[in-house]
Structures are given as structure tokens and as C-alpha cells.
Amino acid sequence: MRVLMLLPFFVCGTVAADTLPRFPPNAVWYQDVSAPALKHPNSDAMLTHLSSLGGWGMGATSFQIDFSFYVLHASSGIPTTPVVPLGGADNYYYPDCGDFPPHSPLLAPVPLPIPLPSRGGIEGTGPPYGASMPSYTCNNNNNDCHMLIVQGNTLYESGNSNVTGGNVEAECALTWDLTKVYPRQGRGEQCTSTDAAGYPVAPLLFNADEMYAAEQVPNGDLGHAIRFILKNSRMMKGAYVHPANHGTSGTGEHGASDTNPNAVPYGSRLRLKASYPVASFIAGNVADGGAAATAAARVLLRTLQKYGMVLSDGGSVPLTAESDYYTTYKWTEFGMDPNSQSGGQVLFGIQVTDFEVVYTGPTIPLTYNCVPTPADFIFIDGYDY
Fold this sequence. Notes:
Blueprint: H1 43-52, E1 65-69, E2 71-73, E3 80-81, E4 83-85, E5 114-115, E6 147-151, E7 154-159, E8 162-164, E9 167-170, E10 172-177, E11 188-189, H2 208-215, E12 226-230, E13 235-240, E14 264-266, E15 269-272, H3 286-306, E16 309-314, E17 319-322, E18 355-358, E19 364-365, E20 371-372
Parallel strand pairs: 1-17, 2-6, 4-9, 12-16, 13-14
Antiparallel strand pairs: 3-5, 6-7, 7-10, 8-9, 11-20, 13-19, 15-16, 15-18
């Protein structure tokens, strides 16, 4: 069943630079996971196995960064645009995506119109990978086309998005309440989101404004876990660990397919080893990024030691940053020019075996039986690793 709302199509209110969206400070993404006792008992075997498969996926030491995402900030009062399923109702992720009324997780999702600020854009549509400026037109049959929009305390995220015919066409569209600390099962056990792990996207990115703020503090870091991805063929088939609440199962690059008992499941949280020599690390692109690149690289490494990174989706480029198109500071100020191939190589040389897996709970078999979390849930602390 699909419930759609037909509303007039408007795009108004200009995109403005703002900080990345944040959940309350006690949310799982902001927890310090550097304590030695949090190491997964099978961590060494898991990362040795991942290394044997080729590590990150673009070369064992090619720990690259993708700069293609935009986080748009919509002012209040912007008219909303209805969502329609890409390719018809049967292709929409139901009941995982949408919004549910309080106490009614088994009912149809409430229609999810989305506010679209003018001059906004969808992942990959503008520089450095697309046209000269971001666009709401995206080839959503062949690309992920994430669209990330913040309005007040609501984060709108849609996947395989394209604005066409007065509608937002998507395979999944949902909201996150930025005032809430979600329970261990997130938006629902066995429920996906615009990332296969069921995670939010925008709060786990990092941007140039965050980098600037971190560099104003001695030994500063970004203050939160970072989103990362791996090739699906290198992830455990049909399983995930909290705080994820979904995974994939399949073959090749279209679904997690590794059946080795040491495979890394969706949702895994990896932290850079405490013994890693961050203070002496030299940026992989120092030849053209200079001292600024090394300073930025060390901010990222300190972040990865303290907060780690969470395995969110399948793909080729491990880390994901926000484009600097809308931000106050620009990546070139930090020796990370997204328009040059070396801009994403600031962490070149970091290998999977430089990390440890954090224990976040037992592996959960994937059933695809989504049980949505009611909108009025009361948070009970479930993040005591």
C-alpha cells in the first residue's frame, strides 16, 4: 500500500550555509568508543580477513573521501513537494520508509511531502562530479541520488531521488527527529533507511566548517562518528549489528555476500588504534595540499580514534564528506581540493588493519521483517556497550 499526497509544486527559499544536523549529545554517534575494553573479541580476525579481500576496495591503502553530498537547510514556511515511488509502488521500501502515526507502526505511512529550498541539489549533481552547480535533477535509476534537507528539528532524507513532474521521485523518503535519542533499533528493527544499515546520513558526514572549528582547538576532532562504506561483496551476508537495524543479502556488488564467519557485518563501528602515530602522520596529498592537508588529516584521525566510523552502506569510496558548495569554509583551505584527484587522498596509507572493531552487540540475522519504531517512543538507554 502507498499513500501519496498531491500538492502543488513550489521551490522557494534559498539554500543557506549552516552546520550539519545533530542529535542530542547523548546519542550513540557522539559516544567516545576509545576505551580498550570496547574492542570486539574477534576484531583482529575480522580485519585481517577484510584486508585479505583487498581492504577498502580501491587499493589496500587507498582510504579515500567522497565530496559529492549536499546538506540543504530549508527555512520555515517553504511549501512542500509530494513524494512518489520511483518505478511504482512495488519498488518503494515499505513499511521501512515514510512516517508513522504514534502507536500505529502497522498502519500505512503518513504521506511525506518534502520542503525544497531553491538552488538546492541532490548528491553528485554539482561540482566536483557533476555540473557547475547542484541540481534537483538526478539519474536515480543508476545512482544513489541522496537528498538531505534540514528544516528546524526535522531531517528529511530520501534515496534514489529526482525532482520531476512536480514530485520528488524516490525509492525511500523518511524523516529523523533531531530532538530525540533513538533506541537501539533506530527507526525500527529490520528497517532500512536511505542507507542500507538504517542509519541517518547527514549527521555522519563531515564538512569544511566542522574542520575549521576542530582546528581552533588543540588536538581537536569533529566530535562524532563518521559514515563509511565498503563494497557489499566484502560484508557479511544477511546480518547486521546495532546500532544498525538493517543489512543486505545478495551477490556481488548488489548485496552483502561474504559468508566467512570473520566477515564484517553492516553497522560495524571501527576505531583507529590508539597506538596509531597520529601526531607524526603526513597527509597522503601533502605534495599539493601542504601543511594544511596534514593538519586536516590529523583532525580526521583523532576523530576516528575517539568516535570511530560506522559501516552504513555499500560502495567504493570509504569516507563521505559534504561538498563545500554551501559551506562558509572551503576544502581548499585545508589542502583537500575536491576538484583534484589528490583532494580525497589526504588519508592515503591508512589500512583496515590500522583499525579495531568496537563491540556493539551480537550479530543479528537479517529477516527484512521491518517493525517500525512508533513516532512517540520513549528512549530507554540501550547503548551500554
